Amino acid sequence: MNMNEAIDLLKNKGYKTTGKRKDILTFFEQADGYRTAKDLIQHLESTYEGISFDTVYRNLHLYNELGILETTELNGEKHFRMKCTHHHHHHFICKDCGKTKEIDVCPMEEVTKRLANYDIEGHKFEIYGVCPACQTV
Amino acid sequence: MNMNEAIDLLKNKGYKTTGKRKDILTFFEQADGYRTAKDLIQHLESTYEGISFDTVYRNLHLYNELGILETTELNGEKHFRMKCTHHHHHHFICKDCGKTKEIDVCPMEEVTKRLANYDIEGHKFEIYGVCPACQTV
DNA sequence: TTTACAAATCGTAATCATTACGGTATTATA
DNA sequence: TATAATACCGTAATGATTACGATTTGTAAA
């Protein structure tokens, strides 16, 4: 998902494309990794002083519902990033900068075989650590 | 990890084995799956009316540090279960009853190869859904 | 078995992320 | 440009978790 696809999606669904909505998309497009609501608020404050929590969280939820953003929970805080739409994969997540690296390994085919009578609704596979750019040594 | 191992560990480390601590262990031993702090408080209330949040959370953290419990974050709430100490594996987690099923599949060997310059500190692989016992059909 | 003291607990307040809401402003489009 | 639906603001409420001074309790030495 990118900026233009997201804006088209908003328009097609009848949502208004406000300046704040565009700026939120730009923020995540440039982030290239996971960011929190707090990160976003801090970023938006420079342009929109006193922006409301309501606006931020409402739009994060909207984008999540529309499949513009994907989310994960780390350290008791929700993190968001632009949704990867091209093919199924997982992520290494850098705990310092939040940037992600695609991992094209998924063991679900094998796992599904072993859970014959289970109703599988989803799965999560994430690798945590420090990316090369953030290593101080 | 089981009740007796946990109590021995507490004693060896110089922690006191109070009635509440034992009851918390019993609760998780019988749970056979993930439970929240709220679940635990509700259970303890029947024996210890007005038990303090401090007591509950302090002991959950202690048990987590000592490797008696393991934890995961679901729906914005921390969930705890007795730690599996025998060998490395992952879990299917039933969203209705919290019970888990061991999954002896872990793709980390392959993943490690693909993250040569990355400092890997941990990973999470969980499968979510409904277990056979909770399926209403 | 008392005593002494560190550890554990209580009762409650504070914190942090998130959600909710009534009133106002803005956007899309007719 | 008028209109109505949508978005936003300012702020209060919620829910999980953390924190803290005062009090109680286990443990082990005397």
Can you characterise this structure?
The structure is a homodimer of 137-residue chains. Chain A is α+β, with helices and mostly antiparallel strands and 137 residues long. Chain A has five helices and six strands. In chain A, the strands form two sheets. Chain A has a three-stranded antiparallel beta sheet with strand order 1-3-2. In chain A, strands 5-4-6 form a three-stranded mixed beta sheet, with no helix packed on it. Chain A is globular, with a radius of gyration of 17 Å. The model of chain A has no long low-confidence stretch (mean pLDDT 96). At the A-B interface, helix 5 and strand 6 of A face helix 5 and strand 6 of B. Strand 6 of chain A pairs antiparallel with strand 6 of chain B, so a sheet runs across the interface. Chain A binds a DNA duplex (30 and 30 nucleotides) through helix 4.
What would the keywords be for this entry?
homodimer; alpha+beta; 2 domains; 3-stranded mixed sheet; 5 helices; 6 strands; 38% helix; DNA-binding; transcription (chains A, B)
The coarse overall form of chain A would be globular
Beta fraction of chain A: 25-35%
| Count of DSSP-assigned helices of chain A | 5
Quote the average pLDDT of chain A. 96
Strand order within the widest sheet of chain A? 1-3-2
Content-based structural category of chain A: alpha+beta
Largest interface: A-B, 34 and 33 residues
Question: In CATH's first tier, which class of the largest domain in chain A applies?
Answer: Mainly Alpha
Looking at CATH, the homologous superfamily of the largest domain in chain A is: Winged helix-like DNA-binding domain superfamily/Winged helix DNA-binding domain
Tell me the Rg of chain A in angstroms: 17 Å
Order of helices and strands of chain A: HHEHHEEEEHE
Q: Helix fraction of chain A?
A: 25-40%
The total count of strands of chain A amounts to: 6
Query: What oligomerization state is this entry in?
Result: homodimer
Uncertain spans of chain A, ≥5 residues at pLDDT below 50?
A: none
CATH topology of the largest domain in chain A: Arc Repressor Mutant, subunit A
- Main β-sheet description of chain A: 3 strands, antiparallel
CATH architecture group name of the largest domain in chain A? Orthogonal Bundle
